[in-house]
Amino acid sequence: MSDLKLFRICDPQYAETPDQMLSGEGAFRFGGRWNTPGNRVVYLAESLSLAAYELLVHVPDQVIAPYKRIRIEVPEKLIMTLDDSVLPDDWQEPGHPDLVAIGDDWIASEQSLGLSVPSALIPGERNVILLRDHPDFDKVRAGEIEDFRYDARLTGLMKKRLSSIVDDEDND
Q1: Global model pTM greater than 0.70
Q2: Long-range contacts of 131-138 (CB under 8 A, 24+ apart)
Q3: Do 154 and 148 contact (CB within 8 A), yes or no?
Q4: In angstroms, rounded to a whole number, what is the distance separating the alpha carbons of residues 91 and 99?
Q5: How many helices (H) and strands (E) does the chain have?
Q6: I want to staple 1 with a disulfide (CB 3.0 to 4.6 A). Which of 37, 52, 76, 153 is the partner?
Q7: How far is residue 5's CA from residue 73's CA, in Å, rounded to a whole number?
Q8: What CA–CA distance (Å, rounded) separates 10 from 66?
Q9: Mind listing the pLDDT tens digit for each residue in 21-55?
Q10: Which string of DSSP letters, residue by residue, matches 5-22?
Q11: Contact assessment for residue 20 and residue 14, using Cβ atoms and an 8 Å cutoff
């Protein structure tokens, strides 16, 4: 089997080292779509573009900020793929309790280093959750941290959108 290439984009304050970018601290403190707080997992995407899109929906007002990106490689055999047929019909809704339960069950089982899950944003694409405290985490190979910026055309659109939202709120 080959290695799976995964991507993560972070705010520079959480990206001084690969270990910091892959610490799982955010998910540990705040939880995520697939985990409750108190579980140290790292959310990654199978493509850089999906990682950018996933970040965009969480921090749309900060899209013009500079970010850092990292590519990692993980042996595919250490990643379990979630059978999408177990998902409820409305699984794409934010904060769905069934997804947290599925993720927490996987975390408790420690049966694999990673869990491949469908992206709620882009049909057919996948994210991978890595269990930070799994014994196989040392098999994760991190690349260099690099700068990441959204294209100026996108940031221009986001600025216009944000300013129209502010204008609408001012007129209410």
Answers
A1: yes
A2: 131/40, 131/41, 131/107, 132/22, 132/23, 132/24, 132/40, 132/41, 132/42, 133/40, 134/110, 136/78, 137/113
A3: no
A4: 7
A5: 5, 8
A6: 76
A7: 5
A8: 9
A9: 999 999 999 999 999 999 999 999 999 999 998 98
A10: EEEEEE-GGG-SSHHHHT
A11: yes
Phi, psi of 149 (to 5 degrees): -135, 145
DSSP 15-48: -SSHHHHTS-HHHHHH-BTTB-TT--EEEEESSH
Domains of the chain, with CATH numbers?
Answer: 3-170 (3.90.228)
Q: What is d(CA 110, CA 125) in angstroms, rounded to the nearest whole number?
A: 24
State pLDDT tens for residues 125-136: 999 999 999 999
- Token pair 């069950």: residue: 105
- Residues 151 and 143: their CA atoms lie apart, in Å, by 23
Q: Are strands 79-81 and 126-131 parallel, antiparallel or unpaired?
A: unpaired
Gap between the Cα atoms of 45 and 125, Å rounded: 9
Question: Which single residue is written with the structure tokens 């270990």?
Answer: 19
